[in-house]
Write a structure and sequence with these properties.
This protein is of the alpha/beta class. The protein has 18 helices and 32 strands. Among the domains are: 92 residues, Cobalt-precorrin-4 Transmethylase, domain 1, CATH 3.40.1010; 65 residues, OB fold (Dihydrolipoamide Acetyltransferase, E2P); 87 residues, OB fold (Dihydrolipoamide Acetyltransferase, E2P) (Beta Barrel), CATH 2.40.50; 73 residues, Beta Barrel (OB fold (Dihydrolipoamide Acetyltransferase, E2P)); 141 residues, Nucleic acid-binding proteins (OB fold (Dihydrolipoamide Acetyltransferase, E2P), Beta Barrel). Bound molecules: iron/sulfur cluster. The site of iron/sulfur cluster has 14 residues, from α1, α4 and α8. Iron/sulfur cluster binds next to α1, α4 and α8.
């Protein structure tokens, strides 16, 4: 038995594309439904049901989160898309590009105030979708009789459901011409159905029996069966291989096989396998050939450019050519459809766009805004010719280029990674890039939100202090479908708690008395300051700040500064550590011992007066005693008769007792030293002066003037006076 399989049997390009999109959705997260049956074929519906994708009739049937719908090739009204978006439902749009083209035409005609006539079936989902795109302001007619009943209009725009019959469409167009002053005809009929019928009729003349494979509910299969029967050749419609009865095949030398647009390849193959089983061994070779033919024809289906339509009107011819061209292109580029992620090679880079070879007829274009989420001035900063990119198909532009986005693929990849981190409760690294009301923005590949209450370091006064810091985070909220607010919310609370516990453990394992540690001033209070030592927060008491008296800790410390502290003691039982800052400073006594020596005359301030003398501060915190007998070179009854508190005096260090930490001072001796010094200086000066005066005597005698005589006498008198004082 010879088996002939009609070209283009089975899925059309639009249905193939919808099936592929649905297959892809089965791998995505969330629950997916097709809005209406994907194709009129129970086996296909069952196949997807087994893959977790059920069919729903309307959006009201959907409840719950993380839901997605697949819009089948028939397309839907924009109202339904809007409703789905408002409900936060994800959408995979598998509307056939040819149907989308009809939608655009309907929109255009409405804008230009045409009365739209849709040649289609009133309740067909595709027609209902088209009606939605022209705000339901269109009249649907399905035959010439209804065309006759149309009232006269000023301007009529005629479009068609893609699967309607061309002959009737042209007849309708002819009638409408008489109903208006201006008629615009858009032949939006897809040639897939017509081609399938034509190619089936081509082989039917060579066969004894024609098997038409397709679901009993499929209207295009029913049309195909009807066309075959009209030729007089025995024709039987079957849904699957098991429907075939052996007696049908008895005496059949040439068998024809064709299939409707909703019949998947695997059912056609099952029918061919069934034929193989029926055939005698010597026919097996032939069957194999037939199978090869199916595969070959399947490839041809994708690559073949449909023949140009024969038309009666030149305008209609042009429209049809363009529609057929689009259909052919759609098949040729192996259906990279809106929402597909494809690979391409960069062939040209301009500042504002990148041209990508995506393997089809059309060039792919990535506008700069779709190249990266980063701020760049030129696309050349990001890619170069020859780079291979993964890109998302956005849409086709008016010149037939495919608009692509790399940015969205990158973002999706990031989201995929983040979703894994979220599901596995992994920590992620990010950089804080800005602040907003109530929290911070964190770059974790995408921009996420960190609520202020989740920073994990208690109350934060100034969020901007965190900008630029790189930290670890955990994702606490992940929702790709969120329309408002951030899809990813991060937190440091848990990590900060874990970090603190680790630090605490490390601190107590290593802290020892006598160590010097770094501490960050967290809080200043009247009695000291609380320091963060990394795993321990301890009090540095005001008395341990300095040797000298500090009126308030804020006089020497600032919140946020890091200082060195000495560990005075460690009480592990009470988890307490005592700290000192002054221990790391030189004590006043150390300074005194280094700086001062017995016999030196220094300045000091009288800080206290007692009956036995006066205390003079020579360094902050160190006072020396000037005994009453050392206050003056005469007998003193009361110290206050000679000195007063706060008076700055010159004192001579009589003795330093480092063990007893006592210093004895003398104002009297200091004064004597000062006087002696003055005399010594005067005498030295005098001697110099005398030496200079003697020089002229060597050469010639010089007469002293009267004034010089007076000066000489006066200076001598001063010496006499000083001697008396001594
Ligand atoms: S318009 Fe044509 S190619 Fe598209 S789904 Fe319909 S029949 Fe298939």
């Amino acid at each position: 038995m010879r088996i002939l399989v009609a070209k283009n049997a089975g899925f059309c390009a639009g249905v193939k594309r919808a099936v592929k999109i649905t297959e892809d959705a089965a791998h995505k997260t969330g629950i997916w439904y097709t809005l209406g049956p994907l194709v009129h074929n129970d086996a296909v519906i069952e196949h997807f049901r087994n893959r977790g994708i059920d069919t729903i009739d309307n959006l009201e049937q959907i409840t719950g989160d993380d839901i997605g719908i697949i819009i089948r090739s028939h397309g839907v009204s924009p109202v339904i898309i809007k409703q789905a978006e408002e409900k936060g439902i994800r959408i995979q749009d598998a509307t056939c590009p040819l149907v989308s083209k009809v939608h655009k035409t309907a929109e255009l005609l409405i804008q230009e105030n045409y009365d739209i006539i849709i040649f289609g079936d009133n309740q067909h989902p595709e027609t209902l979708g088209i009606l939605g795109w022209c705000n339901n302001r269109a009249t649907v007619i399905s035959d010439v009789e209804q065309a006759h009943n149309i009232d006269r209009k000023t301007k009529i725009g005629l479009i068609s459901q893609t699967t309607k019959d061309l002959k009737t469409f042209l007849a309708v167009a002819a009638i409408l011409m008489t109903k208006t002053d201006e008629l615009r005809i858009f032949n939006t009929i897809c040639s897939a159905t017509k081609n399938r019928v034509e190619q089936t009729l081509e082989i039917i003349r060579q066969v004894d029996l024609m098997l038409v494979i397709g679901d009993s509910k499929s209207s295009n299969t029913a049309t195909l069966t009807k066309e075959c029967l009209s030729t007089g050749v025995k024709t039987i419609q079957i849904e699957k291989a098991d429907d075939i009865q052996d007696e049908w095949l008895k005496g059949v030398s040439n068998l024809g096989i064709t299939a409707g647009a909703s019949t998947p390849d695997w059912i056609i193959k099952e029918v061919l396998d069934r034929m193989t089983a029926y055939e005698e061994k010597d026919n097996q070779e032939l069957n194999q050939e037939m199978e090869n033919q199916v595969i070959q024809q399947d490839q041809e289906m994708e690559n073949e450019v449909p023949p140009t339509q024969a038309t009666e009107n030149e305008d209609t011819q042009n429209q049809e050519d363009s529609f057929a061209k689009m259909e052919a292109e759609m098949a040729e580029i192996a259906s990279p459809s809106k929402g597909d992620v494809i690979k391409g090679t960069v062939v040209q880079v301009k500042d504002d766009e990148v041209m990508v070879d995506v393997g089809g007829k059309s060039e792919g274009l990535i506008p700069l805004r779709e190249l990266t989420s980063k701020e760049v001035n030129s696309a050349k900063d990001i890619v170069k010719v020859g780079d291979e990119l993964e890109v998302l198909v956005l849409k086709w532009d008016d010149e037939g280029n495919i608009l692509l986005s790399k940015k969205k693929v990158d973002a999706k990849k990031e989201m995929d990674k983040l979703e894994v981190s979220f599901n596995q409760n992994e920590s992620i690294r990010g950089t804080i890039i800005g602040s907003v009301k109530g929290g911070l923005l964190v770059d974790i590949g995408i921009t996420s939100f960190l609520p202020a209450s989740h920073i994990g370091e208690g109350f934060v006064k100034n969020l901007d202090d965190y900008i630029g810091r790189e930290m670890d985070f955990k994702i606490i909220e992940f929702n790709r479908n969120k329309r408002r607010g951030s899809q990813v919310v991060v937190s440091r609370k848990e990590l900060a708690g874990e970090e603190r516990a680790r630090e605490r453990e490390a601190f107590w394992a290593s802290v020892e008395e006598g160590q010097i540690r770094k501490g960050k001033v967290k809080r200043i209070v009247d009695y000291g300051a609380f320091l963060d030592l990394g795993g321990y927060e301890g009090l540095l008491h005001i008395s341990e700040l300095d040797y000298k008296r500090i009126p308030h800790p804020s006089d020497v410390l600032t919140e946020g500064e890091e200082i060195d502290v000495f560990i005075l003691g460690v009480d592990r039982e009470k988890s307490r550590v005592s700290l000192s800052r002054k221990k790391l400073m030189k004590s006043p006594w150390e300074i005194v011992l280094e700086k001062y020596h017995e016999g030196e005359v220094i300045e000091g301030k009288v800080v206290r007066i007692a009956t036995f003398g006066a205390f003079v501060e020579i360094e902050p915190g160190v006072d020396g005693l000037v005994h009453i007998s050392q206050l003056a070179n005469y007998r003193v009854d009361k110290p206050e008769n000679v000195v007063s508190v706060d008076q700055v005096v010159k004192v001579k260090i009589l003795g330093i007792d480092s063990e007893q930490k006592r210093i004895s001072l003398s104002i009297r001796e200091a004064q004597e030293d000062v006087d002696a010094q003055a005399v010594a200086e005067y005498l030295e000066k005098q001697e110099q002066s005398n030496t200079e005066e003697e020089v002229p005597e060597v050469s010639e005698p010089v007469e002293l003037s009267e004034a010089e005589d007076v000066a000489e006498v006066t200076e001598s008198d001063e010496i006499a006076d000083l001697t008396e004082t001594e």
